[in-house]
């Protein structure tokens, strides 16, 4: 029976479905989100008829690697999670073009072939864990050693934004514009009212620092004592970073990636008391040593996509514990499969010191049958087998059709290109910008 059991865990087929997901006109240092953002949905089918699902970045470079891995996977067991990495190393080869578009101009850190491969593997790892859990009747968190909390806290992710995309492209929403402190506070109030979030992160790097300082002060006044974060994605020089840190002393829970690169972050950290967080200068294991030994960061924002999956996220957490560095979670435009995966791994990490980021409330579309609901700013950790979410095949088909119908313009996320289409006179997104 052992042999039979093993045979039933064998992968018989892998389905890759690239989709385009509606995204609002959210602003960042690189430009503006496109009307639609690519994601890749992965289905792993086993011999006993179980399907596991995963999700990762869907830009062309990721898709190319995913195709190679998908072709090599049949015959592999869904339980052979370490083997996924060796298989990917063998079959994926070097991606053809590790260009700016692949990583939206560095918002998610260095762009290396390894990181690209890990981001692809993460989607397969999650799909395999989902299939394995479903097959064993165990939730994914149990496969990671079991949850140590029943709920995972998330923070409201505030963005400066336009009311609509240029020319009314994409899917409309009723959030309106947020381009000043009043707009940011109104957005935060809606997040608090609708989802119960009580910690707030503002995406900065959009307006001159004084305007963003004013927005954070307005948030502090509107939500006294609540944790606040500001993240300009490395837009500032060391001097500007220190100026902002001084102006917001005692107001911020942490300042996220004020300056770009470990050396600049270390200079800022040495001269201010505000903890610095990053999802840009520590995004791979080789980057950890320099950042931790120079004191450049006090909090790392993990992201299971580019760290290579849920088990690697736990390894990162262990290293952070060893160095006394805090842990939080980064997010990018994502759907409900990724949110389920984030929640499962977050439930198992002892040193999750801050509430996690999520873009999810900005996504009005999904490929799962029941959307996640934030209650009191948190998500309940599912104990259902696998991830605890089901694929909505109709929705998947619809969003895939949008990808098929696209002329290629949106298949690679490029915020700078989207901004330049809207405003040909827009300056270069080079950093430091201020
Ligand atoms: O979606 O505009 C965005 C964010 O700026 C994203 O691209 C970043 O990767 O959210 C991320 C961050 O925390 O830096
Ligand atoms: Mg960030």
Describe the structure.
The chain has 434 residues and is α/β, with parallel strands linked by helices. It has helices spanning 2-8, 60-72, 81-92, 113-136, 140-143, 181-195, 209-222, 238-247, 262-271, 288-293, 304-307, 310-323, 336-348, 393-405, 415-422, and strands spanning 11-22, 27-28, 31-32, 36-46, 51-57, 151-153, 156-159, 200-203, 228-231, 254-256, 276-278, 299-302, 326-329, 378-380. The strands form four sheets. Strands 7-8-9-10-11-12-13 form a seven-stranded parallel sheet. It has a three-stranded antiparallel sheet with strand order 1-4-5. Strand 10, helix 9 and strand 11 form a beta-alpha-beta unit. Helix 8 (238-247) packs parallel to helix 9 (262-271). The longest helix has 24 residues, at 113-136. The termini are far apart. The mean pLDDT is 95. Magnesium ion (MG) binds next to loops.
SSE layout and pairing:
Elements: H1 2-8, E1 11-22, E2 27-28, E3 31-32, E4 36-46, E5 51-57, H2 60-72, H3 81-92, H4 113-136, H5 140-143, E6 151-153, E7 156-159, H6 181-195, E8 200-203, H7 209-222, E9 228-231, H8 238-247, E10 254-256, H9 262-271, E11 276-278, H10 288-293, E12 299-302, H11 304-307, H12 310-323, E13 326-329, H13 336-348, E14 378-380, H14 393-405, H15 415-422
Parallel strand pairs: 7-8, 8-9, 9-10, 10-11, 11-12, 12-13
Antiparallel strand pairs: 1-4, 2-3, 4-5, 6-14
Helix pairs in contact: 2-3, 2-4, 3-4, 6-7, 8-9, 12-13
The protein binds D-glucarate and magnesium ion.
Magnesium ion binds next to loops.
């Amino acid at each position: 029976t052992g042999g039979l059991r093993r045979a039933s865990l064998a992968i018989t087929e892998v389905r890759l479905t690239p989709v385009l997901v509606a995204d609002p006109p959210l602003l960042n240092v690189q430009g503006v989100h496109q009307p639609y953002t690519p994601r890749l949905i992965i289905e792993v089918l086993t011999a006993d008829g179980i399907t596991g699902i995963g999700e990762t970045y869907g830009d062309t470079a990721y898709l190319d690697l995913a195709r190679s891995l998908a072709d090599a996977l049949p015959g592999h067991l869904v339980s052979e999670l370490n083997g996924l990495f060796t298989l990917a190393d063998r079959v994926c080869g070097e991606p053809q073009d590790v260009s700016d578009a692949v990583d939206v101009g560095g918002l998610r850190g260095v762009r290396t072939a390894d990181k690209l491969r890990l981001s692809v593997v993460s989607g397969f790892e999650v799909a395999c864990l989902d299939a394995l859990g479903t097959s064993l009747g165990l939730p994914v968190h149990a496969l990671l050693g079991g949850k140590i909390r029943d709920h995972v806290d998330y923070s409201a992710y505030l963005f400066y934004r336009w009311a609509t995309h240029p020319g009314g492209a994409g899917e409309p929403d009723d959030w309106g514009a947020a381009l000043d402190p009043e707009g940011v506070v109104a957005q935060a109030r809606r997040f608090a009212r609708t989802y119960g979030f009580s910690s707030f992160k503002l995406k900065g790097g959009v307006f001159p620092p004084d305007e963003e300082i004013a927005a954070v002060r307005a948030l502090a006044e509107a939500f006294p004592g609540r944790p606040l974060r500001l993240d300009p994605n490395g837009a500032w020089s060391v001097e500007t970073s220190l100026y902002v840190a001084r102006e917001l002393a005692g107001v911020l829970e942490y300042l996220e990636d004020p300056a770009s690169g470990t050396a600049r972050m270390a200079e800022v950290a040495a001269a201010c008391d505000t903890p610095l967080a990053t999802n840009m200068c520590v995004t791979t294991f080789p980057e950890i040593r320099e950042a931790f030994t120079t004191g450049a960061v006090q909090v790392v924002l993990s992201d299971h996509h580019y760290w290579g999956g849920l088990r690697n996220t736990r390894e990162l957490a262990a290293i952070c514990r060893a160095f006394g560095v805090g842990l939080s979670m980064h997010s990018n435009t994502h759907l409900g499969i990724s949110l389920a995966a984030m929640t499962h791994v977050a439930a198992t990490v002892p040193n999750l010191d801050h509430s996690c980021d999520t873009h999810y409330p900005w996504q009005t579309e999904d490929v799962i049958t029941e959307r996640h609901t934030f209650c009191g700013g948190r998500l309940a950790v599912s104990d259902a087998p696998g991830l605890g979410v089901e694929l909505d095949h109709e929705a998947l088909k619809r969003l895939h059709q949008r990808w098929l119908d696209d002329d290629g313009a949106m298949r690679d996320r490029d915020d700078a290109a989207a901004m330049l289409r809207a405003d040909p006179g827009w300056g270069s997104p080079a950093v430091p910008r201020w």
